[in-house]
Specification:
single chain; alpha/beta; Aconitase, domain 4; 7-stranded mixed β-sheet; 7 helices; 7 strands
């Protein structure tokens, strides 16, 4: 995984709530065995001249600004791969009193693949979204801030996910940080031998 500490790039605003993973990457592409080539399939069934990501201002954007409960529906890492391979480094979701910014499974898949998710309450999210596609934003992950239009907004984040993205480590990489302790434990732990019965 690619480590990230800071990132500055254009935003693309996709003002859709409850955007499910089948819209992000249609199910018919899930049978592919390779892990590359998904970027051009992002939102494949809804792309066109009126689609927000196909507007000139969104071209080259690296920060996707979405609505609530982004990534709901079925679990598929392909949705995260498509977003990343389309050039996005972070997704900014909107949290309301009733709804989280991201679905739980999409949140975990993103963490496992190194896609930064930023969840903002409605008022703070509006500051980012109103700036519009093409506006420049800067993310400072150690400080947990996103800055846009002269305003800096703090965001909360799970400490383990933050550490993984800062270090560019997936779940296996995070586990291997404890390789010495695991090896020491294995040396002291007797092997389990099932009893024949």
């Amino acid at each position: 995984m690619e480590a990230m500490r800071t990132h500055t790039g254009k935003i693309a605003v996709l003002p859709i709530d409850q955007c499910d993973t089948d819209r992000i990457i249609p199910a018919r592409y899930l049978s592919r065995v390779e892990r590359s080539g998904y970027g051009e399939l992002l939102f494949k069934d809804v792309r066109g001249p009126d689609f927000p990501l196909d507007q000139p201002a969104a071209k080259g954007a690296t920060i996707l600004v979405t609505g609530t409960n982004f990534g709901c529906g079925s679990s598929r890492e392909h949705a995260v791969w498509a977003i990343q391979q389309a050039g996005f480094k972070a997704v900014v979701g909107k949290e309301t009193a009733e709804t989280r910014g991201f679905s739980d499974i999409f949140r975990q898949n993103s963490a496992n693949c190194g896609l930064l998710l930023i969840e903002l309450p409605e008022a703070e999210h509006a500051i980012v979204a109103v700036a519009g596609s093409g506006a420049e934003a800067s993310i400072d992950l150690p400080a947990q801030t996103i800055s846009i239009g002269g305003k800096t907004i703090h965001f909360e984040m799970d400490a383990a996910n933050k550490a993984a993205i800062l270090e560019g480590l997936d779940l296996i990489g995070m586990t291997l940080r404890h390789e010495a302790e695991i090896s020491e434990y294995e040396k002291k732990s007797p092997a389990y031998v099932p009893v024949k019965g």
